[in-house]
Design brief:
heterodimer, A: 322 residues, alpha/beta, Rossmann fold, 4-stranded antiparallel β-sheet, 11 helices, B: 354 residues, abc type-2 transporter like fold, 4-stranded mixed β-sheet, elongated, binds adenosine-5'-triphosphate, binds magnesium ion
Chain lengths: 322, 354
């Protein structure tokens, strides 16, 4: 079976390009529902994730991403529906499955008063992982210089990285990450992307949730867009954007042109100045750029094609507010 | 199993680095022992002090011949200042002033402390009687021997060492277990562990192992301090039975703490309920005063508290000098409480706070 768009991901990683992959379903979910009182946190969700796939779940706060993930991991029981992980059922607690999966929860939790190294070594030992392996993992998430700092004294992002290290320390086949980059600075975020790409290239299946469109675009083979408990679309990021009739946005420094003048440029559909930049929407970007260039008004120009944000807007009729 | 070892290690480190827990489980009860042992300490309280003004051959001879026995209960100071000595007695710094006027031994005492004044009069009276008898030159016809029902060295420290230790173990056990369990649940450590392959009995086993080790340290510290010459604890032959008693006591208290921790939703609730259990248990379980001297209703009520059995068992083998087998019923009861508590806690157990 051909995964549309998988090529893109492979190229990104600089690895070989297997255009055809055998899809053993690592995760398969059917008719999943979970209600909290009147809230339908997960509402009739079904999808499959193939072995070695990088799968993203994208959605605003309260969309049901965490609930969905925790049901799949076996932390919560679904009201209805079926989950199968690596051919096994995660509920009730399944000892055959647990060593094969690695989970980073949205809220990190650690043993109290241990240092980062002690923490990771303790978690590793629960899986029979030797101490050196745990220390290497610490290095991988860039925490070696914080090895002897107590977990309570780590910054939010450092704690998050430690929590991710705890999820990866035993080389799981299947990795779940709930907003892994939420608290990370741009540098740490890029580093984590590299780590995740590498473990995925090694053949591990990765499922992550995120608020960041760029993250989903950069990492995921396929993205599920989720809102109000439902999966609205599920496709490779490129296919999601390609199918969209969305304008290109060209922005220049605020005040470069009056909005009315900008709107009158050839090819411009609309223009607005938010005080930081003047944004011109267009379906003919080259005409607009040429016109701006003729007016010598290209200071700070940025051109952005349709993004997943547009996809979300298109699907829900709402602006994406993560 | 390596999971068990590393979890125990992690929890033990966590405990050692928790200054508050260290203070309340180890130092605080020791302070009580020092205070109680010092205030009510064995020999000093039963000794009476008399001030001898001027020469008093009757008393001097008695002290010389009475040897160690009399010196254990009577201390004699000398002074030439009668008024000053009387003032001393009034203030309670001495128990009586003694003068010999001819063949009369004159004793002035304060009635403020009835026990002491009684002891002083009794002592002086027996000294006079003994001197009369000696003066007659005949051997005594009647003699008296007396013995306390407890062992002779059953002093305050013999009581306070086991019973304060019992209180320390009870509060460390119940608090430790309930706080740990609620904390692990509310902080999400339990759900994180649920995702690891470690069996849940291993997690709790590790916590129990840490508590048992800490309890052994508490026992050693208590016995060490109480045996210092200042406190003068004398361990009886079967004192080592305190070890299995302490271990089974700790299991019982942990089980009670687990029930509270499994039931309580928040740390505050757990803390309040724990206090509401531990304090009455310490009072009515005989940790702060001997149950033998308490009203009947109190003694009856004490039977519902596991601490009572631990205290009683330890007192029997450490203080009263009963044989090792005497502690077996108490151990059985404590283990029973542990089993029942663990079963109830397992029924109430939740991984998640929501
Ligand atoms: N334990 C719970 N009890 C009651 N309601 C809950 C519970 N957990 C989640 N919900 C509700 O279910 C919905 C989905 O929550 P969920 O945490 O899955 O969202 P999310 O997509 O992960 O959001 P975020 O991006 O903020 O992490 C929300 O409306 C939330 O209020
Ligand atoms: Mg979430």
């Amino acid at each position: 079976m051909e995964i549309p768009g998988s090529t893109r991901g492979r190229v990104f990683r600089g690895g070989p390009v297997p255009s055809v992959r055998i899809m053993a379903h690592t995760i398969s979910v059917h008719g999943l529902r979970k209600r909290y009182g009147r809230v339908r946190a997960v509402d009739d969700v079904a999808f499959e994730v193939g072995s070695g796939e990088f799968f993203g779940i994208l959605g605003p706060n309260g969309a049901g991403k965490t609930t969905l993930l925790e049901i799949i991991e076996g932390l919560r029981e679904a009201d209805e529906g079926e989950v199968s992980l690596l051919g096994l059922s995660p509920w009730p607690r399944n000892h055959a499955l647990l060593p094969r999966i690695g989970v980073q929860l949205q809220a990190s939790s650690f043993f109290e008063r241990l240092t980062a190294r002690e923490q990771l070594r303790t978690f590793g030992s629960l899986y029979g992982v030797p101490g050196q392996k745990a220390d290497a993992m610490l290095e991988e998430v860039g925490l070696t210089d914080k090895a002897d700092v107590r977990v309570e004294k780590l910054s939010g992002g450092q704690a998050q990285r430690l929590s991710i290290a705890c999820a990866l320390v035993h080389d799981p086949e299947l990795v779940f990450l709930d907003e892994p980059t939420a608290a990370l600075d741009p540098q740490a975020r890029r580093n984590l992307w590299d780590v995740l790409r590498r473990i995925n290239t090694e053949g591990r299946t990765v499922v992550l949730t995120t608020h960041y469109m760029d993250e989903a675009e950069a990492l995921c083979d396929r993205v599920a867009i989720m809102d109000a408990g439902r999966i609205l679309r599920l496709d490779p990021p490129a296919a999601l954007v390609r199918g969209l009739d969305a304008p290109t946005r060209i922005s220049v420094a605020a005040g470069t042109l009056a909005p009315a003048e900008a709107r009158a440029l050839p090819g411009a559909d609309d223009a607005a100045d938010d005080g930081v930049s003047l944004v011109i929407s267009t379906r003919d970007p080259s005409a607009v750029v040429a016109a701006l260039s003729a007016k010598d008004a290209l200071t700070g120009v940025r051109i952005q094609g349709a993004t997943l944000e547009d996809v979300f807007l298109d699907l829900t009729g709402r602006e994406y507010r993560a | 199993m390596s999971g068990f070892k590393s979890l125990s290690r992690a929890m033990f480190l966590g405990f050692l680095r928790d200054r508050g827990a260290l203070f309340f489980t180890v130092l605080f009860p020791l302070m009580f022992l020092v205070v109680f042992g010092g205030v009510f300490g064995g020999q000093t309280t039963s000794k009476v002090t008399v001030v001898q003004v001027g020469p008093a051959p009757v008393l001097e001879r008695a002290m010389a011949h009475g040897g160690g026995e009399l010196a254990k209960v009577l201390r004699v100071e000398r002074s030439d200042d009668l008024d000053g000595s009387v003032r001393k007695v009034k203030k309670g710094d001495a128990d009586a002033v003694v003068q010999q006027q001819g063949n009369t031994l004159a004793v002035r005492f304060s009635a403020a402390d009835q026990v002491k004044s009684g002891t002083v009069q009794g002592l002086m009276n027996s000294i006079v009687q003994a001197s009369n008898q000696a003066a007659s030159g005949k051997p005594p016809v009647y003699s008296l021997t007396s013995q306390r029902v407890e062992d002779e060295s059953m002093t305050a420290i013999q009581f306070f060492t086991p019973s304060l230790l019992g209180w320390a173990l009870a509060s460390a056990g119940v608090f430790g277990a309930s706080q740990t369990l609620v904390n692990w649940r509310t902080k999400g450590i339990l759900r994180r562990l649920r995702l690891s392959p470690v069996p849940i009995p291993t997690v709790f086993g590790a916590r129990v192992a840490v508590s048992l080790v800490v309890a052994m340290v508490q026992l050693a510290l208590f016995l060490g301090v109480a045996q210092l010459p200042f406190f003068g604890l004398q361990l009886r032959d079967a004192w080592w039975m305190a070890i299995p008693l302490v271990l089974s006591g700790v299991l019982a208290f942990l089980a009670i703490g687990m029930v509270i921790g499994a039931w309580a939703k928040t740390q505050e609730t757990a803390q309040t309920v724990t206090q509401a259990v531990v304090l009455p248990m310490a009072f009515l379980g005989g940790s702060f005063f001997p149950l033998d001297a308490s009203p009947t209703w109190m003694r009856t009520l004490s039977y519902i508290f596991p601490l009572r059995y631990l205290n009683e068992g330890m007192l029997n083998v450490m203080g009263r000098g009963l044989g090792p087998a005497s502690a077996l019923p108490q151990i059985a009861i404590l283990l029973g409480v542990a089993v029942v508590g663990a079963l109830v806690a397992a029924r109430l157990f939740r991984w998640d706070s929501a």
